Amino acid sequence: MPADAKRRLRRALGLSLLFAPAALFLASPGRSQAPGRAVRLGYLDSGWPGPEAQLLLDSFRRGLRDLGYKEGSNLSLEYRWAEGRYGRLPALARELAEKKPDLIVAAEAQAARAARQAAPDLPIVVVAAADPVGFGLIKSLARPGRNLTGLANVGPELTAKHLELLKETAPAVTRVAVLWNAANPIEVRLWRGRQTAAQALGLELISIEVRSPEDIARELGSMLEQKPQALHLYAEPVLHGRRNEIVAFAEKQRLPLVSDAADVTVAGGLMSYGVYLPALYHRAARFVARILRGGNASDLPVEQPSRFELVVNLRTARTLGLAIPPSILVLADRVIE
């Protein structure tokens, strides 16, 4: 199918891009930094420094190279990883601040908040902040203020799409277990959004709350007493770091697993629909360069995602005895045979 026809069909079926990119950056006063002069960046992430994270950082570094900043030449990066423990973020952020970087890049909202608390005078670029206004990171998308800018991720609207996809693929499903991190305030907001979407689809949600990586195996086991027919996962850092464990559980229990993370589907989940993160990391480099060359983070509009990815695992569908509807297959960006 031609690309333009596919796009039209995506819009018609309600899986179009959820947001359009924000307006182009406006010129604003601030510090000036020429590409030829060495700059120092701090990077703070709530997750793990594994292969998937390195692929995202490769996209970020490519974006910086395109703009004249090359690590090891005129750019140095200092990395800190909380490895799924949000309580570590404040201390890690302080460590970065003590290095006196030109700015701090935060992977997501929790890391951005810790960075701002540790270094209120440093500009901060967040790569993928779910609901940054509701979370209190910024005042508005157009005028973020608070010396912070970057890119937003999608909030409750996206989880509704996951449940719609699940219901279309497995119409007999009525009970869906939702694995979520109750220690993450953003996840609390997403849980409310899931409940609203589930009611509209006639689904009953089973809340499976965790607060640390160690909770996951125990809570998944106890969930079986409630006889779920499917599993939903929003892959925030704590849960995403244990995705292989979660996928293996879903496979063993023959539960369709839907999520926002493509690598969950690649690992064996049924399907995923979410923001294409490499594009956000590549785009984040433009915010960094804009600030280094004189832009004021407070005045740079926060952009919303414009590229999404639908991934379907046909191998998993066959194992579960499910037939993926043609209306979903034709929209898929990737199909795992």
The H/E string reads: HEHEHEHEEHEHEHEHHEHEHEHHE
Radius of gyration: 20 Å
Task: Flag low-confidence runs.
Answer: 5-9, 11-32
CATH topology of the largest domain: Rossmann fold
Share of helical residues: 25-40%
In words, what does this structure look like?
- The chain is of the alpha/beta class and 337 residues long.
- The strands form two sheets. It has a seven-stranded mixed sheet with strand order 7-6-8-9-10-11-12.
- The chain folds into two domains: 168 residues, Response regulator (Rossmann fold); 146 residues, Rossmann fold (3-Layer(aba) Sandwich).
- About 8% of the residues have low confidence.
- The protein is built from 13 helices and twelve strands.
- The two termini are 19 Å apart.
Layout of helices and strands:
Layout: H1 3-12, E1 39-45, H2 51-66, E2 75-81, H3 89-98, E3 103-106, H4 109-118, E4 124-130, E5 148-153, H5 156-169, E6 175-181, H6 185-201, E7 204-210, H7 215-223, E8 230-233, H8 237-240, H9 243-253, E9 257-259, H10 262-266, E10 271-275, H11 277-292, E11 308-313, H12 314-320, H13 326-329, E12 334-336
Parallel strand pairs: 1-2, 1-3, 3-4, 4-5, 6-7, 6-8, 8-9, 9-10, 11-12
Antiparallel strand pairs: 10-11
Helix pairs in contact: 2-11, 3-4, 5-6
Descriptive labels:
39% helix, five-stranded parallel β-sheet, 337 residues, alpha/beta, seven-stranded mixed β-sheet, Rossmann fold, 2 domains, 13 helices
